[in-house]
UniProtKB/TrEMBL annotation:
PROSITE patterns: CHEW. It is found in: Cytoplasm. Pfam families: CheW. Transmembrane segments: none annotated. This is Chemotaxis protein CheW. InterPro entries: CheW, CheW-like_dom_sf, CheW-lke_dom. Residues 17-158 form the CheW-like domain. It comes from Tepidimonas taiwanensis. PANTHER family: CHEMOTAXIS PROTEIN CHEW, CHEMOTAXIS SENSOR HISTIDINE KINASE-RELATED. Keywords: Cytoplasm. SUPFAM superfamilies: CheW-like. GO terms for cellular component: cytosol. GO terms for biological process: chemotaxis; signal transduction.
Length: 163
């Protein structure tokens, strides 16, 4: 009987929290659902595709799979920074497609309790797109912006997924 109680407590704990991969874009720290992450790779210059939007840097060959690479700094309107040895590509599996996103650096994996996540503030400015922000979490002295990476990558303006 004890094993059943322990197992049901584990299930309750799993539902009460989630793990997020945290990364930096400029001065801001973001988190995405770890379950969407396939791997993390060092940045390599992708092969440019003619007439691609500026946020799509090109494609890379990942073990025989051609993967589009998106620079999240450009897509989200962050200030441009030169690529360096901390720049990485987070390879995601979104709706059955493999997509790489370039970020300034990866921080760590955090487990956050659902009640530690606050709703994103509503912004009325058209310049601020909060559609892909699922919440804000305080982690010590840090503010972590939680992002719905699946919705962002599959959004029509990204041009990566079929409608």
């Amino acid at each position: 009987m004890t094993a059943v109680v322990a197992h049901s407590n584990e299930i309750a704990t799993q539902r009460a929290s989630a793990e997020y991969l945290t990364f930096r874009l400029g001065a801001e720290e973001y988190g995405i659902d770890i379950l969407r992450v396939q791997e993390i790779r060092s940045f390599e210059q992708p092969t440019r595709i003619a007439n691609a939007p500026s946020h799509i840097l090109g494609v890379v060959n990942l073990r025989g799979v051609i993967v589009p690479v998106v620079d999240l700094r450009i897509k989200l309107g962050c200030e441009r920074v030169e690529y360096n040895n901390l720049t990485v590509v987070i390879v995601l599996n979104v709706k059955g497609r493999v997509v790489g996103v370039v970020v300034d650096s990866v921080s760590d994996v955090l487990e956050l309790a659902r009640d530690a996540i606050r709703a994103a503030p509503e912004m009325t400015s058209a310049a601020v797109d909060t559609a892909f922000i699922t919440g804000i979490a305080s982690v010590g002295e840090r503010m972590l912006i939680l992002m719905d990476i699946e919705a962002l990558v599959s959004s029509p303006d990204m041009g990566l997924m079929d409608a």
